[in-house]
Amino acid sequence: MEHIPLNxxxxxxxxxxxxxxxxxxFKRNLIKLIMGVALLASAVNLFLVAxxxxxxxxxxxxxxxxxxxxxxxxxxxxxxxSIVINVAVLALMLTMVVHIYRHTxxxxxxxxxxxxx
Amino acid sequence: xxxLITHSPALIVALPLVAAFAIPLISRAGYRVSNTFNLVIFSxxxxxxxxxxxxxxxxxxxVYTFGATAAELALPGGYTVPVRIMFxxxxxxxxxxxxxxxxxxxxxxxxxxFLKGRTGQARFYSxxxxxxxxxxxxxxxxxxxxxxxxxxxxxxxxxxxxxxxTNMADAVEGGxxxxxxxxxxxxxxxxxxxxxxxxxxxxxxxxxxxxxxxxTLDMMALGLLGGxxxxxxxxVPLHMWAPDTYTVAPAGTxxxxxxxxxxxxxxxxxxxxxxxxxxxxxxxxxxxVIIVGVLSMFIGVMMAVHQTDIKRMMAYHAISQGGxxxxxxxxxxAVLADPVALANYGRDAINGGIFxxxxxxxxxxxxxxTAEAIFFRIGTRDTNKMxxxxxxxxxxxxxxxxxxxxxxxxxxxxxxxxxxxxxxxxLKFNPVLSVIAMFVSLVTLASxxxxxxxxxxxxxxxxxxxxxxVPKSMIIGxxxxxxxxxxxxxxxxxxxxxxxxxxxxxxxxxxxxxxxxMGAVP
Amino acid sequence: MLSKIVRTVANQLILFxxxxxxxxIAHGHLTPGGGFQGGAVIVSGVVMLLVAFSSKELKKSLxxxxxxxxxxxxxxxxxxxxLAGIGTVFAYNFLVGTSIFGRIPPTGPNPGDIWTGGVxxxxxxxxxxxxxxxxxxxxxxxxxxVNGEEVEE
Lengths: 117, 522, 153
Prior knowledge:
Strand order of the largest sheet of chain B: 1-2
Largest interface: A-B, 33 and 36 residues
Number of strands of chain A: 0
CATH architecture of chain A: Orthogonal Bundle
Number of helices of chain B: 19
Strand content of chain A: under 5%
Distance between the termini of chain A: 56 Å
Shape of chain B: globular
Shape of chain A: elongated
Strand content of chain B: under 5%
Oligomer: heterotrimer
Structural class of chain B: mainly alpha
Number of helices of chain A: 3
Helix content of chain A: 55-70%
Order of helices and strands of chain B: HHEEHHHHHHHHHHHHHHHHH
Radius of gyration of chain B: 22 Å
Radius of gyration of chain A: 20 Å
CATH class of chain A: Mainly Alpha
Distance between the termini of chain B: 35 Å
Number of strands of chain B: 2
Largest sheet of chain B: 2 strands, antiparallel
Largest sheet of chain A: none
Order of helices and strands of chain A: HHH
Number of domains of chain A: 1
């Protein structure tokens, strides 16, 4: 455990965010776009949970807690709210893509555009 | 009555939520019952906003802490850091609240007749109430995480409304673009909130402003927040979603989605003026805001001139007028550190920018409603196919003329007052910007005159012989906004002194915002 | 619709998933979990039923009207509990000092005392009801939509 640098979760979050932005900007398939947004959400959630870690900390539950520091509970609450909101957003996006496919028969973002100019 | 005023920030956000979830139950009893319920609850909410506005303008900043023994108890006994969720209503917040409530009232009355014959009516009003609750929460919030939650509520409800007409292909496409952009920008805001929490361990805006030391990580957070809010308010170069979404939203909901964009602009000002305030290099940040404003003005109006779809043209004009607001407030931000220039023209520049927000929302909402009225009767938005409608749709033509004159800045309507403030103050700052602003105003007038000639005047087309005027509820909705446009144009001084000047004072005066929460903490 | 074996097993398993989800909802103030998490577990059971039986079959059992009423009721209970806190202002609040509001239990495990959480377990139940109804409606609507039918109003 000592070989892993302490800011490893933050590097992982940054890498996920980079991959997510690459997918959102450069891919044309609408389903891949939605997956990119889901990856960005995962990156931000990982970043928030990793913020609260204190070295050698215990879970922030008061009953029968062993001695030592506790990890911060507030980022965990923020992450829960963020996960719930992202579930709603992803459901909405997926339903809209199914509607677009029904109307235009294509889920390529170049071919299914009707509003131009 | 006193307790009603004390608890009104919470009730203003809680009552629309009650309405949003009660409407699917009540609408089973019939269409008249549910319309009456909507109007009664919304009048109650508008009354609460009015008494809160009178109170904030006379007494000062009002803080509401959730779950404390008294509403103003921001620091419970023994604490030095505010740890509870709170709403903090100052002059700028209640200014946005007045705009949002008026536009929603007009949209609610306008939509009463519009939905006959469509399914899912209960869900439509639920989404409108949720959008209203999200926008008011965003305007009143006093801590960062509530900003994120209410921003997402407003985005999801707005996207659901924009894609409401699922039988048309372009409606769903507009809604999809809106939700993708909103999701990305909200995730960037959450990232910045994480960075700020990691450094200072507080989430409340006043406490963060008190403890802020401007490190490199804080600069990154400011960049993320600025980028996210520019994405949401459709500033160039991140404006691609706006023409599509504003075009396809049904009935009175386009003005509400517009109001959501300007509430994001309010959030941007809250971040730069209040959260960071004295620590940032205001000249550099001010110039960035000015450049985004000038680009929006110019590109918006250039793209609008050759559109044939009437609502898409109005959407590009909305982008360009947003540039005016950014220009005015950006000039004020750039001279914030220089007290002589601030007293000379900086304060008036911010006055002009903020006054333009309320003017723009009113006349642009009026214009969008006339375009939807035309679409309701003749079923197309293409100006090449319209002609000679002024014979049959007299009221719509009159409202269109009022809106077009207001947007071009012709006296005595309200656009003239705010644009004159912006021209004069920006001239003292940098003359080139003022010349660009006046040129953009000229091109705006030209494009609206072109559409008026092609749509309303001219020989009567045989296909439109039986087109009648739109129903009464739609005319009442439009006339509320037209009355405001004319009133604000005739008495601009009164409006600036009563509503706009307290908002400007609230933005410039960061110390009073912090003291309302932190009290006398050293 | 999948084979007979899958359908029988799904019919038996939904009971255990329902109990597990309700356990997570009810103990939200003591163990990790709560309203949304328990609701999501139960909806995963509904998805299992949706896959085992086809969406046309499930539409006959889970009617849209029932889900809509359940969702609105859950949300209104939640907002009612939240607004009960400022009831002192407009009427005499008889709930202060009872086990729901305003009583601080002693630290440590309190065996046998089910009101240690105050108003939070009730809110968890309300959110759980709302999430079950809402997410089931979403999942059912998407499954029907992909198969080419619509949810009737």
